[in-house]
Write a structure and sequence with these properties.
By secondary structure, this protein is mainly α. The protein has three helices and no strands.
């Protein structure tokens, strides 16, 4: 389905965060950890 309508430009992450905030919840930090943080875990 996303291939048909296109994933880019559909803003799924910001729309999800907007819905969470509207419901009184904390938004999600969608950023990936830095490589240095990942290397420290392994």
């Amino acid at each position: 389905l996303s291939a048909h309508r296109g994933f880019f430009g559909s803003r799924p992450f910001s729309r999800t965060n907007a819905a969470l905030v509207e419901a009184g919840r904390e938004p999600i930090d969608w950023r990936l950890p830095a490589r240095a943080e990942l290397a420290a875990v392994t």
